[in-house]
Write a structure and sequence with these properties.
mainly alpha; 6 helices
């Protein structure tokens, strides 16, 4: 099994480097990779501008998982003398190659053109935007709450930090929510500013 994880570590690491270069240095994907990604996913409805950091995180986690599994295979696992069929072996290698490409194909290739698509404000839709005007502020609040829980929930000083983040994000969310309501007559009435269904 270690062959699978060697391939996964090298291949996913390679894709991670390419995505990092594209994200942070605006170096476009090689033409061959763009062709493969278009063949895999085309212009799917699941591709979104702005999904690049999520894809980077998923690739990074996939790479770390592969490194962990490789270390387990090399230093912990005790294998029987049995062997797998050649077809299973090829499927295993193909799986780890396609897995990284499938993750990477979630990125819209339009993200790398460097062209501004639109300077106008518009009503955001989809995912958490269906319930709140500022899901990114809500997500940040959840991150701080999660860190508090990770600390065991007993660190009073941290909960003051969370309280500060709550008030700061609430103020910013209210201002943003009011902007949307003021500038868009068709803005959904059921949306809250920061906390789904509450505020």
């Amino acid at each position: 099994f270690s062959h699978f994880y060697v391939v996964s570590v090298v291949w996913t690491g390679f894709l991670l480097v390419l995505l990092g270069r594209a994200l942070f240095f605006k170096v476009p994907f090689p033409a061959w990779l763009q062709a493969v990604l278009i063949a895999l996913n085309g212009e799917s409805e699941y591709q979104k501008l702005g999904a690049e950091l999520s894809v980077f995180l998923v690739l990074e986690l996939l790479w770390l998982h592969s490194v962990r599994r490789l270390m387990e295979c090399l230093f912990l696992s005790v294998f029987s003398p049995g062997v797998i069929h050649l077809v299973q072996y090829c499927f295993g290698l193909g799986y780890y190659i396609l897995l990284g490409l499938t993750v990477l194909s979630q990125v819209s290739l339009d993200a790398w053109t460097g062209e501004v698509v639109n300077l106008n404000h518009s009503i955001p839709y989809g995912d958490w935007f269906e319930n709140v005007s500022c899901p990114h502020y809500f997500a940040e609040l959840l991150i701080y709450v999660a860190i508090g829980i990770t600390f065991g929930g007993w660190n009073l000083t941290w909960w003051f930090v969370v309280l500060y983040v709550l008030f700061n994000q609430a103020l910013a969310a209210v201002l943003c929510h009011e902007f949307y309501q003021r500038n868009f007559i068709a803005y959904p009435k059921h949306r809250k500013a920061l906390l789904p269904f509450l505020f």
